[in-house]
Design a protein that fits this description.
alpha/beta; 28% strand
Length: 233
């Protein structure tokens, strides 16, 4: 059963329609990549899933339960972890304090930083007492992912995690996503413009254009030439 089912959702900003009948799904132990150029509705889709923007039609189900009327903090407590575009770490808090902000979504018995986070991102262990704002862009991205993982998510959403990041850190992020997929205890929704990165990691894909999903399927049936053309038009 899919952990996340988004079915035929419409989303508006005032009179402007940003999403038109969008449907996607994300399954445990799998990566679903949402691809598209700037301005095609990818961020609006994530705002709908995370509860930052109400939908006008359709449904969003998580673990078989409709969450379309729930506020963002309730969705987080249910296990939806979000790594936003631009990272949005707290620059004046230390690395450890930034990670501990993930405690807000878990029970008091889970308020610790899992060791595997420092195994995945050793730089965070080395810089626990450094302020978040003193980290490089790539290190901040690792911190943002680590913060989301502290929440023990059942669905991890990553919005453009490779944007503005040096190649060595992109490889680290790719290895992290592969590791999390292989654990099999979370669904991963990856929003990307970097096609080669997404193609290598995804099990399923959806390409968006003008607020709609125009191509979707599993990786085995992904037409590289067609998708590249859609991303470059």
């Amino acid at each position: 059963m899919a952990k996340l089912d988004v079915t035929s959702i419409d989303l508006f900003y005032g009179a402007a329609q940003a999403l038109r009948g969008v449907s996607i799904r994300a399954e445990l132990g799998k990566v679903t990549a949402v691809l598209g150029r700037n301005g095609v509705g990818k961020t609006s889709l994530l705002r709908a899933i995370t509860g930052q923007q109400a939908i006008r039609a359709g449904d969003i189900r998580f673990g078989g339960v409709s969450i379309k009327a729930l506020p963002s903090f309730e969705r987080a407590r249910m296990g939806i972890g979000f790594v936003p575009q631009g990272r949005e770490i707290f620059p004046l808090l230390t690395v450890r304090e930034n990670l501990e902000t993930g405690y807000a979504a878990v029970s008091r018995y889970e308020r610790n930083i899992p060791d595997f986070i420092f195994d995945l991102f050793p730089v965070l262990a080395d810089m626990q007492n450094r302020r978040g704002g003193d980290l490089s862009g790539g290190q901040q991205q690792q911190l943002a992912i680590g913060r989301a993982l502290v929440m023990r998510p059942k669905l991890l959403i990553l919005d453009e995690p490779t944007e503005g990041i040096q190649p060595s850190v992109i490889k680290d992020i790719g290895r992290t996503i592969s590791f999390l997929r292989e654990r099999g205890d979370m669904a991963i929704l990856l929003v990307e413009q970097y096609f080669d990165f997404a193609r290598e990691l995804c099990d399923f894909y959806a390409v968006m254009d003008r607020g709609q999903v125009v191509r979707s399927g599993d990786r085995a049936h992904l037409d590289t030439g067609e998708v590249r053309k859609l991303l470059s038009v």
